[in-house]
């Protein structure tokens, strides 16, 4: 079922996040967030939120979540254009651009 698949994905990302953090530190968490964000943002969001209580700073978790969202947004845009063709670019690109602009605004404006 979908719940079992998500549970397995969540467990895999949590294990990966813990291991990558020990091995590569914050940079590893950022890389994992970007890669896992291309498929799903929920698992990395939950994983980073749990790691805040285990030594990861809120800033690092927030940056990782933002990276996952950016990767997910770009991936979905590319998929929409690849599947539906160039005619899909006009409605998709401005919408995704607005989403990314809002994310950037939230990052740079306190």
Describe the structure in your own words.
The protein is mainly α. Helix content is 85%, strand content 0%. The chain is built from five helices and no strands. The protein has helices at residues 2-24, 26-37, 42-52, 58-84, 89-108. It is globular, with a radius of gyration of 15 Å. The mean pLDDT is 86.
Helix percentage: over 70%
User: What would you report as the Rg, rounded to the nearest angstrom?
Assistant: 15 Å
Question: Termini distance?
Answer: 41 Å
Average pLDDT number: 86
Number of β-strand runs: 0
Instruction: Tell me about the largest β-sheet.
Output: none
Q: What is the percentage of strand-forming residues?
A: under 5%
Annotation field: number of helices: 5
Globular, elongated, flat, extended or rod-shaped: what is the shape? globular
Stretches with pLDDT under 50, minimum 5 residues: none
Based on helices, strands and strand pairing, what is the structural class? Answer: mainly alpha
Element string (H = helix, E = strand):
HHHHH
């Amino acid at each position: 079922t979908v719940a079992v698949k998500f549970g397995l994905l969540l467990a895999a990302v949590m294990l990966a996040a813990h291991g990558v953090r020990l091995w590569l530190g914050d940079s590893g968490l950022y890389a994992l967030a970007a890669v896992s964000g291309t498929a799903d943002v929920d698992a990395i969001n939950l994983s980073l939120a749990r790691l805040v209580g285990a030594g990861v700073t809120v800033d690092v978790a927030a940056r990782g979540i933002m990276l996952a969202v950016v990767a997910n947004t770009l991936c979905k845009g590319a998929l929409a254009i690849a599947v539906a063709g160039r005619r899909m670019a006009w409605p998709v690109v401005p919408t995704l651009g607005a989403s990314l602009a809002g994310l950037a605004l939230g990052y740079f404006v306190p």
